[in-house]
Structures are given as C-alpha cells and as structure tokens.
Amino acid sequence: MNNEIKLRGTISKTYFLLRYSIVLMFFFSTFSAFAQTDSTSLMARGLKSYNNGQYADAKLIFSGVLIFDKTNTEALYYRANCEYFLNDYKTSVEDFAQLVKINGSDTRFLIGYGRGLNSIGKYKKAIPWFDKALLINDKLALAYNMRGFSLESMGKYQAAFDNFNQAIHADSNLAIAYLNRGSAIYSNQNIEKASKQDILKAISDFTKAISLEPDICICWQNRAVLYKMLKEYNKSIADFDKAVECSPDSINILGRASVKNMTGDYKGAQEDCLHVISMNKKMPVTYLELSIAQAGLGYYDEALKDCDDLVKVNKRYRMLAAFQMARIYAVSGNKTNMLVYLKKVKHMGYFDYKDNKTDFYADKSFKSYSMDKDFREFLSKL
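Now predict its structure.
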C-alpha cells in the first residue's frame, strides 16, 4: 500500500521536447534574430514562451539573452526555472548556484536553489536556503512548503507538518501545501494502520488542493487510495479515472484495476492490467492483479500463468504468487493442489505475518472448504 502513494514536494509537468533537428532549426532561426533584437524584446519573447509552458523554447531564448548580456540575472533565473520544469535538475541547480552568489538577498533565488537541492535529494543542504529566505521575509509560503518537504524527506514528520501549516497560514490558496500536509498526516506511520480520523483529514486536504488546482494528478491518486482504504470503492474508482485522465501512467491505471477487482469488475480490471502490461512489462504487481481478474472471470489456466509471469518478472514475489495459486485452485475446485500450495506458503512463512493470517481467514476463495476435514486440519496447524 505504501507504494501506491507517492509523496511529492513539487509539481513537475511533463512537456514533450521537440525533435532534435527541429530544436536546432528553431535555435538557428532565433539566433539570427538575436543580432537584430535587443535583450529586452528577447526577454519578452522568452517570458511569453515561459508563461505558455513552452519551457524548451523559452530556455533557448533566455540562453540567447545571456550570450549578449551575461549579467542578466532575470534571464538566468528564468532559464534555471525552465531547466527545473524540464526535469534537468542538475543544470538548474548550477544556474541557481550562480544566482545566489550574485545576489544572496533575492528570495526567489534562495528558494529556487533550495528547491533544486531538494530535487536532487540533498534535503539537509536545502534547508539553510529556505531559512535564509524566511529571515528576509517570514511570509513566504513557498519557503515554508519546500522546507517542510525537506524535513519530511529526512523523516522529521512533525516539523514538516508544522511547516506545511505555516505555508497554508501564509497563503491559504497554495494547493501544493495542502497536498503535502495531507500526505504528511500518514507518512510517519504505517498507512494500513492509519486511523479513520487521519484518513479523513488527509482526504480533506487533498480535496482542498484539487479545488484550487484540479490538474495536480497526484491529489486524485492519493485520494483514490484513501477512499479505497475506507472501502468507498465507487469514489476511489472515480478518482482513479480522474488521475488516469490527467496522467495516463501505469501506476494510476493499475491502481484503478486493483479497486475494480475489489468490486468484482473483473473484466474492467483485466482490461486495465493488459493496458499496463502493454506499457510496461516489468511491473510485477500487474500480473498479480491480472491473475485475480482472470480467476474472477473463470479463466483459471490464464490466471495460473499470470502467477508464473509474476515470478519471472520478480522472484521476490514467489510467496504471493504461490498463495494466489492456492486461491485459484480453491475457486476452481482443485482441493488437492489448493492444499499443496497452502502448505507451501506456510513453509515459506506467509502466515507468520498476522495480517496475512487474518486476511486468509476472511478470504472468500476458501469459503466452500470451511467444513472440509483436510482444510480444517490445515487451519488447526497455523
């Protein structure tokens, strides 16, 4: 479950780069204009591209400005931001490092540099830069938010939570702060053990973030997972639908498949799993969910094969695959093989985990064997 929720401190939108040859054509056509255009008009062109989300184009223009005016900190600042949004974090950090050397009192530069350090995993080194920005202006919501992300990434959850609260207090419309605070509510605990009260608080924060910025895909994904935990499956699927619409990646589609399996929509789950496999054949959990869907549809041989594929992709899933095979044999009426695989997973230590044992007792796949002598004998030895 922990893997289903991905915590993020920043929102990175993916923009498809133009083909290399087209970029070169653009650069050279733009470069010829540089000789005839002053840096002010070039900056205006760069900012127009930047504000339209055309970061690759904007980066080229800002680089052109810097060719003619190496001291133009605005061009360097916006180029660094372009690099960040293009996921070129290392280069972005290098540009921001120059900026804080030139002017260490500009809070934009300080926050940008700290954000960049966060993006390359240097959380401890990032914090002093947010501290410096807040010493200059203690109302900077972004600085509190980014410092909170640094602290959360270092495992300092309460301090992170406090910073997210300060960010929201400074700017009640900062969507990313609600996202981070919602995530922080359960990031310092086993999400499976999170109280209903904590889950509802997190849902409230994700809902607020969505109301402010509906295109933050991870908010839909996170809320979908929490609705799943509350067994509000229709709401969960609706949120996963939104997440897939916003970002049709394998994580969101697989998350939706998992909930569909829980509601008995095995056909829908099967379709989602096959879609994920067409995108990425190396995600082991996909084969487990596909096996559950195939078994639910009565395709037992296919479901068993999915278990084999699961182990081929990742041998660490052997125990889960073996238990799923026991479930398949149970629902298909093959008691002999069911018991073989139940004994196998017992030997592998599956039932040493309390939650696994509890789930096993509640698993409807084995319901028809509740009065079977051999099955009851197996239960007595757990």
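Residues 314-382 form one domain.
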